[in-house]
Structures are given as structure tokens and as C-alpha cells.
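Entry 14. Structure prediction run on the chain below.
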Amino acid sequence: MSENTASTHVIGFRAAEHLLQARDPRGAIRLLDPVIDAHPENTAARLLRARAYFHGAQLRSAEREFHTVLEREPDNAYAHFVLGRTLQRGSRTEEARRHFRLAAALDPRPDFVEAAGFPV
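Output returned:
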């Protein structure tokens, strides 16, 4: 992406979503990096990049990005849930449980409640 315009970044973001759906997390990250460089406050792009890091097994990068999202949106249940999955995948069960519980408390979706270990 040579142009640094808002429309170019929107296109990059949408293309990154498609790449992640197509199971190309590295390609998604490559498209998201310039978007986030130009718009570091864009939480949606950061959340998408965190998911791409997670799916690409870059757990430390995913964790760092999820924490950035949660600093800005501490009530983002989905970010807590996927951070919990990231920590769980890294064998950090107790830390993961905390985020699963926060996710379930913020949004009692069945998958969040189940991950938190709350009775259904």
C-alpha cells in the first residue's frame, strides 16, 4: 500500500478480515501493520491484528495487542475471552480463568460462561 489515505486503510482492513477468514494470519498482519501505524488508536484494527497473531501462534504478540485493546476498552468481553484463550494456549491457566470470568460477567454468552466454569 503506497498511498496513505483513509480509503486505502479501510480496504486494507477489509482485506485483512478476508485473509484471516481464509486462514492466512500472516497476510492479515501484513495488511494491518500500515493501518495501525497510521491509526494507532483504531481498536478494531488492533483487535483484528491480535486475532491474527493468535491464529498465527504468535502468542506474545497476541497477548500484547489484546492488552492494548483492553486498556482502551476494559469492558470488551470478546477481547477478554480471546485473551483468555491466548493465555490458556500458553499454559497460563490461572491468568486465563480471570479473563474468562470477566468476559462472562460482561456478556453471559454460553461460550464465555462455559470457559469461565460458571454453572449454566
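The CA atoms of residues 43 and 80 lie 14 Å apart.
Filed with the rest of this week's runs.
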